[in-house]
Design a protein that fits this description.
Layout: H1 2-14, H2 17-26, E1 31-32, H3 33-37, H4 44-56, E2 60-65, E3 68-73, H5 76-108
Antiparallel strand pairs: 1-3, 2-3
Length: 111
């Protein structure tokens, strides 16, 4: 049940396009909230709230370096989503494989 709650938190955090864009930016490396806010028409305070939601979902951690608080992406929640999606991925791959077999058998039939 805890894993399900964690997935719920992760999906809720990822539901917002600004938060997804922040995560995409963090793939390039750590950044301060001011740096993360630059491409958005949002205040630093608003971006800080988005980072806080990502942090609560475990998608981001913050550390302090001199005067800066740096945010860093955490991959574990994304790996958990990938694992959860794996069963669905296998289901669709099996269906596509069966469809491919049917199409091949149909193509092999003489007209």
């Amino acid at each position: 049940m805890a894993a399900q709650l964690s997935l719920d938190d992760t999906f809720a955090a990822l539901a917002d396009p600004t938060r997804r864009a922040i995560l995409a930016r963090l793939l390039d490396g750590e950044a301060s909230v001011a740096e993360l806010a630059q491409p958005f028409a949002l205040t630093v305070r608003a971006v800080s709230k988005h980072v806080g939601v990502l942090e609560q979902a475990g998608l981001v951690t913050r550390s302090r370096a001199a005067q800066k608080h740096l945010s860093r992406i955490e991959l574990k929640p994304l790996r958990d989503i990938d694992r959860w999606l794996d069963d669905y991925r296998k289901l669709w791959e099996d269906r596509f494989d069966r469809m491919e077999d049917l199409l091949r058998r149909g193509a092999d039939r003489p007209e």
